Amino acid sequence: MLNFCTLFNSTYLIYGISLYESLTKHCPSFHLYIYAFDDECYDYFSEKSLPNITIIRLDDFEDEDLLNIKNSRSFGEYCWTCTPSVIRHAISSFNLDKCTYVDADLFFFSSPQPLFDELGSKSVLITEHRYSSRYDQSAESGIYCVQFMVFKNTVEGMKVLDWWRNACIEWCFNRFEDGKFGDQKYLDDWLERFDTVHSLQHIGGGVAPWNVQNYKFEQDGDKVFVIENHSKVELIFYHFHDLKFFQNNVVRLTNEVYVLPKSVISFIYNKYLKVAFTILNQESKFNFFSNVPPNYFNRVLFLTLLIKLRLQYIVDAIKMRQFYRLFSKGNYFSFSRFK
C-alpha cells in the first residue's frame, strides 16, 4: 500500500481530483489523505465518498503551535507552514509506515514505484528542481522542490520531519530572507545535515516547466518517455505549476516566463487537460475559472509580450528557435486545442 497526503482548498479542487484520477490509474494499491483547507473542499469529498481517500477537516488537524502563528501569515504561507505538519499528522494518526507528500497539481503518468525503490534503506526522499540553466532560481527558491517527499516512520525519518516542522513554524514566508524561502530553502543542506536523506536521481520524477528544456520527449502509445543524453526513462509525474483556467474557455499552461517545447504541450499537457476538462464538465457547481475581461483572449498577445512576459521569454523563444511563439498567444490556449 502506497500512502500519499496532500493539502488544498476548493479553489484547487480540479487539480486535486486530477491527481486522484492519475493515482487510480497508475497505483493498484494506494490511499490518499486529503487535508481540506476549507469547508467546501471537505464537503465535496465527504459527499462523494470516493474509494482510497480519507478527508481530514482543517479543525481536526490544526494544533496549538499552528494556531498560534496562523494569523501572522498569508493563506499561501500558512499552507507552506502546514506541509510538514500534514505529513506528521498522517503518519501518527493513521499509523503509517511511511507517507509521501504530493502537491495537488502533480499528475502521474506511470507507476511511482521506481521512485520508492530508489529510496532503499534511507528514511527521507527529496526531489531537486533540476532547473534548466536559463531558469535557475536555486539561490533564492532552493535546490529542492517541496512537491514529492517521502518520510518513513522511523526514528531517523521523524527526526528530520520534526526539525522541518519546527523550522517552518518559526519562519515560513513568501520572501527570501537570511537564506530562507518559504518551507523550501530549508531542504538545501539536508544531505549534509542528516545522513538518512536521499535526493531522487530518476529523471522521470519531478519534470516541470522550469526543467523541460533539459530533456527531449517521446510518446509511444499511452507512455511518455523522458530523454537526457543516453538515458531514456518513462515519465512518472509532472508538476503542472501555475496552470490556470480562465473564463471564455482559455487555459494558461504555466507562467509566461517558461517556454514549453511543442512536444511537452502535445504529449504531457494534452493528456492532463483532457482529464481536467472532463472534471470541469462534471463538477459544474464549482467555479474553477479566474475572472478576466471579456475580450481578454483577443488581447493575450499584447499582455504576454508587453506586460506579463519579461524580455527573457522572447530571448528564450529565439534561442530555442520557437519563432512561432513570438506571433502566438504564448502559453495561453483555447480549450478547443486540447479536445
Architecture overview:
It is built from eleven helices and 18 strands. It has 339 residues and is an alpha/beta fold. β16 and β17 form a beta hairpin. α1 (13-26) packs across α9 (262-282) and α4 packs antiparallel against α7 (155-170). The longest helix has 21 residues, at 262-282. Residues 293-309 have low confidence and may be disordered.
SSE order and pairing:
Layout: E1 2-8, H1 13-26, E2 30-36, H2 39-48, E3 53-57, H3 64-70, H4 75-93, E4 98-102, E5 106-108, H5 113-119, E6 124-128, H6 138-141, E7 144-152, H7 155-170, E8 176-177, E9 180-181, H8 190-193, E10 197-199, E11 205-207, E12 216-220, E13 223-228, E14 231-234, E15 237-239, E16 244-246, E17 250-252, H9 262-282, H10 296-308, H11 311-319, E18 332-334
Parallel strand pairs: 1-2, 1-4, 2-3, 6-10, 11-15
Antiparallel strand pairs: 4-7, 5-15, 6-7, 8-9, 12-13, 13-14, 16-17, 17-18
Helix pairs in contact: 1-9, 4-7
